[in-house]
Design a protein that fits this description.
CATH superfamily of one domain: Ribosomal protein L17
Distance between the termini: 73 Å
Strand content: 5-15%
Shape: elongated
Number of helices: 6
Number of strands: 3
CATH topology of one domain: 50s Ribosomal Protein L17, Chain: A
Order of helices and strands: HEHHHEEHH
Helix content: 40-55%
Length: about 180
């Protein structure tokens, strides 16, 4: 029986698991939201929240403790300068896990984990605008081509065109056992 053993193992040895979770937390700090499996997101959440609690403390000892866990100076600096101050009036619950459904390749449950207080810019609307612009740009190119043709002098339009060489038909390839296709 596994009483009093609440560590999520994630199918890895201890050092690999610690490195994985530290890297996940650093990615969460850097990108503000990450897409991962649900099990990893649930394992990352307590570590991320402990790091924010250390960041709210703000002492040198807390900074060194966070560095001992995360092992990346840039992530610790961003944690203490940006993320922790945004969560000063919140007592826990700094992260949010959003379930995304099953991954297509192996049907693993996927999730987004993000900071509750951090503002995340979603780039869905510009993508829709780009689709509309593509359609407009095709129409615009046709209009510009016709305008460009109108601007060309008459002499260039009347210039003789070069003769195109007739395209020779490719020889029929031999199929299996040397028979020609179509026989």
């Amino acid at each position: 029986m596994r009483h009093q053993k609440k560590t999520v193992r994630l199918g890895r040895k201890a050092e690999h698991r610690k490195a994985l979770l530290a890297n996940q937390v650093c990615s969460l700090i850097e990108h503000r939201r990450i897409k991962t499996t649900l099990a990893k997101a649930k394992a990352v959440r307590p570590i991320a929240e402990k790091m924010v609690t250390l960041g709210k403390n703000g002492s040198i000892h807390a900074r060194r403790t966070a560095f001992a866990t995360l092992r990346q100076k840039d992530a610790v600096k961003k944690l203490f300068d940006e993320i922790a101050p945004a969560s000063t009036d919140r007592n826990g619950g700094y992260t949010r896990i959003i379930r995304l459904g099953q991954r297509q390749s192996d049907s693993a449950s996927m999730a987004l984990i993000e900071w509750v207080d951090a503002t995340v810019v979603v780039e869905e609307k510009p993508a829709e605008e780009n689709k509309g612009k593509k359609k407009e740009s095709k129409a615009d190119t046709k209009q510009t081509e016709t305008k460009a043709e109108e601007k060309k002098p008459q002499a260039e339009k009347e210039a003789p065109k070069t003769e195109k060489k007739p395209v020779e038909e490719p020889k029929k390839k031999r199929g299996w056992f040397g028979r020609k296709k179509g026989e």
